[in-house]
Design a protein that fits this description.
The protein is an alpha+beta fold. It is built from five helices and nine strands. Strands 4-3-7-6-5-8-9 form a seven-stranded mixed beta sheet. The N terminus is likely disordered.
């Protein structure tokens, strides 16, 4: 009991000393920032859901593992528009939008390629999500998150709309519904 009382007294003394020190100075004590973020007007338009200006950027050239086995690369999709959707099994908005992506993928057939890029998941978690949502388009794996970093992903999900020649035309951060996905694909195909 004496130890508890002594500890409480020491804590009260420390708090009082801190309050006196803070009152003695004009400004409260704050740690110096290690990093300062600066954004320009073009970095994000809150009405568009676009992050940065990836227009014209080429996709990474490295190969990646496919969830169903084997290797693939973004170059495999050249010659037709491509929709690349970055997702994870622990991302509720990702899970919510996947059936809409599948529906639009089925509507468009082979005219537009779809690729899901699973970020930092266990293969079993990714496979279970794909099965649960009924996705049939190609799923690639990015276990380290390196491809996501190269693409500039900030939030999940993020979708990249890529021209037939392999250049990013637009990027959408956040979930898409089927209607907005169709509109963005029509813009991509125009």
């Amino acid at each position: 009991m004496v130890g508890t009382v002594a500890a409480a007294a020491a804590l009260a003394a420390a708090l009082a000393a801190g309050a006196l020190l803070s009152a003695a100075t004009d400004e409260p004590s704050r740690p110096a920032p290690e990093l300062e973020l600066r954004f320009s007007d073009g970095d994000q338009d809150p009405n568009s859901g676009l992050v940065g200006d990836a227009a014209g950027d080429a996709l990474p050239t490295e190969s990646f593992s496919l969830l169903g086995g084997g290797l693939g690369s973004f170059a495999d999709y050249r010659g037709r528009p491509l929709v690349v959707n970055l997702f994870a099994s622990n991302c509720p908005p990702c899970i919510e939008e996947m059936p809409a992506f599948e529906a639009v993928h089925r509507e468009l057939g082979d005219d537009v390629a779809f690729l899901g890029l699973n970020i930092q998941d266990q293969p079993s978690a990714a496979a279970a999500l794909v099965e649960r949502t009924g996705v049939t388009y190609d799923i690639a794996r990015d276990p380290s998150g390196d491809l996501a970093r190269q693409l500039g992903m900030v939030v999940m999900p993020t979708t990249y709309f890529v021209s037939a020649d392999g250049r990013v035309v637009a990027t959408k951060a956040g979930a898409l519904d089927a209607g907005e996905l169709r509109e963005r694909i029509e813009d991509l195909r125009a």
